[in-house]
Amino acid sequence: MRQTLLAGLSFQFLTVVLPAQKGSVLPAEKSAYRDPLSGIEVLELTQKGKPDNLYYHFPNFTADGKQLIFADDRGQGSQVYSLDVESGRIRQLTEGEGVSAHSACPHPGDARRLFYLRGPRVFELNPETLAEKQLGEIPAPRAGGYGQPTLSHDGKSLAVAKQVDERQWEVGLMSIETGAYRTVVRTGFRIGHVQHHPSEPVIFYVWETGGYAPQRTWLVNSDGSANRPFYASVDPKKWVTPLKEWVTHESWVRGTGQMTMILDKIGILIVNLDGTSRMIDGDYWHVAGSPDGKKLAADDHRGGLFLIDPAAGSRRLLAAGLRDGDRGVHAHASFSPDGRYLIFNTGRVKKALAWIDLHGLDR
């Protein structure tokens, strides 16, 4: 007779943690505090992962304002996520290798459309159903440098960039209906910060050096004509260093068609399409305009975040100490489509996403 001996045997049950997948929903991580200097309530939206907001070339929200789109790495590589504005719940929108989460581009007029890149391949994703398709591919010759796309003024194309070879870069347009690609302009220098004008057939781009450039800012018509410098000159007496102005961190203001720029250590330039400008003095780092252009949000290197009235030239401190726990944080603040929320990165304790409800400032 065969006997089975159980005595002395031990059984171990292993808990297998499956990787997060597209469609996974995480509970809200919201935590509020009141800034000790401004007295304003700041709501930190994430407590885990390595979150990062999208660049402030356009709203970080879906067109209906119901979902905040952001990039995060929660152990499976960088992916695109959404945060439900009402509940705070977090949802993973993409999965797999090669996702350029920071390339995510919500359609400003259609909450069901979001674009993002996997290398040179451009995808369209529905943030609600998670259905997606490959829209097209940035064609060869190519050597990377694709950056973050922006939607054209008529909503028909994405403006993108690519490095052609060791010497050349170009700006191109891709149809969001057919995926067809055409070259707009090719240059002999590195291109960055490609942004289509919100209401005109004009594309902005910069000569990217990581610092000072002899001629940083450029405009070109969407049909490839009239490639020209876009330069806002300032009184030379205000120049920090001889013979140069250090312009950086540019973005269009959707409601006015103007552009905000940082003039390093001098102030904020508000620039018209014809290149004329006016200055708001101050040592700021990044700046973005509200959808109607009536407010600006700007941060400084010390970790302060300010709300500026460009008409009056006045400013109000919203939060301080945003770099106290993580000096590598860039706030990159931007407004929700209705102007209610100001979304930004904070490193007060560790890196997190946060927002301030501007409608509640004076309550």
What is this structure's SSE topology?
Layout: E1 25-26, E2 31-34, E3 41-44, E4 52-53, E5 67-73, E6 78-84, E7 90-92, E8 99-106, E9 114-118, E10 121-125, E11 132-137, E12 150-151, E13 157-163, E14 169-175, E15 181-187, E16 191-196, E17 202-207, E18 217-221, E19 228-229, E20 247-252, E21 259-263, E22 267-271, E23 277-281, E24 286-289, E25 296-299, E26 305-309, E27 314-319, E28 334-335, E29 341-346, E30 352-357
Antiparallel strand pairs: 1-7, 2-3, 3-30, 4-5, 5-6, 6-7, 8-9, 9-10, 10-11, 12-13, 13-14, 14-15, 16-17, 17-18, 18-19, 20-21, 21-22, 22-23, 24-25, 25-26, 26-27, 28-29, 29-30
Protein described:
With 363 residues, the chain is mostly beta strands. The termini are far apart. Strand 21 and strand 22 (267-271) form a beta hairpin. Strands 1-7-6-5-4 form a five-stranded antiparallel sheet, with no helix packed on it. A five-stranded antiparallel sheet has the order 2-3-30-29-28, with no helix packed on it. It has a four-stranded antiparallel sheet with strand order 8-9-10-11, with no helix packed on it. It contains no helices and 30 strands. Helix content is 0%, strand content 41%.
